[in-house]
Amino acid sequence: MTSPEVTAFFDEATNTISYVVRDPEGDACAVIDSVLDFDYASGRTDTRSADAIIAFVRKRDLRVEWLLESHVHADHLSAAPYIQLAVGGKIGIGDHIKIVQDTFGRVFNEGAEFQRDGSQFDLLFSGGDSFQIGQLRGDVLHTPGHTPACLTYVIGDAAFVGDTLFMPDFGTARCDFPGGSSGTLYDSIQKILTLPDETRIFVGHDYKAPGRNTYAWETTVGEQKATNIHVGAGASRDDFVTMRDARDASLAMPRLIIPSLQVNMRAGQMPAPDDKGDVFLKVPVNKL
Ligand SMILES: [Fe+2]
């Protein structure tokens, strides 16, 4: 089994981990779940996090083949179009994006100019699809539950699980966003846990965990099966659903959910500027 070189970039403002995944036999790579920094109070974007990835890619003379999104994130803005402009690559996401666009197209009262067919992305993946990063093969697992369009990218001996599983001591992702389902997430996680025990798992977020003082993002299928506090040691579907739903009822909305959804459902593009060239995001009142 080929073992890709994986470099992680941690964004402390949103607890997001972005990854550069490289074919060890060549110069091809993919960027997974990049971050465009956004200061909500001032409405200003910043490209610090994305520039770090671009600098890394350029310094090593890598060829970016893919800009992969595990899903439409609700807690950070994607920098995929910004990185694409600088170093290329095709932007990919799951084909269930159409459901997500339909849901949030309504929430944000988008007009007919907002296409809900996923056409803002370069490629829509279905579960079971495969793709190449140079000589490296990637396989796509559809792993809904956190959102309807969530994907896990299995690349060589590494699985990029987005927001399905977190580190074993933190558990799993919330399932209370529109279209989320804790039972569905449990079923998706079982799919991931059928990968070989030694498969490296790279998670999309880390928030530390009680008793752990450092951030962490790499674990294995074997560790998840044995010790994940929500789904490990044979936890039942019923127990998981009860626990997950109760916990989700107590969680506040992510700080950047309103700007994130509007940008990420457009493949990381801002809404079209007005006739003066100014760009605006909406705040739906009492909708989320
Ligand atoms: Fe997420």
TrEMBL record:
GO terms for biological process, alphabetical: glutathione metabolic process; hydrogen sulfide metabolic process
Domain of life from the UniProt record: Bacteria
Domain Metallo-beta-lactamase: 15-205
Key words, A-Z: Hydrolase, Metal-binding
Entries under Pfam families matching the protein: Lactamase_B (PF00753)
Gene3D superfamilies: Ribonuclease Z/Hydroxyacylglutathione hydrolase-like
SUPFAM superfamilies recorded: Metallo-hydrolase/oxidoreductase
Keyword Nuclease set for record: no
Listed name of the protein: Glyoxylase-like metal-dependent hydrolase (Beta-lactamase superfamily II)
GO MF entries: hydrolase activity; metal ion binding; sulfur dioxygenase activity
Claim: Metal-binding is one of the keywords in the record: yes
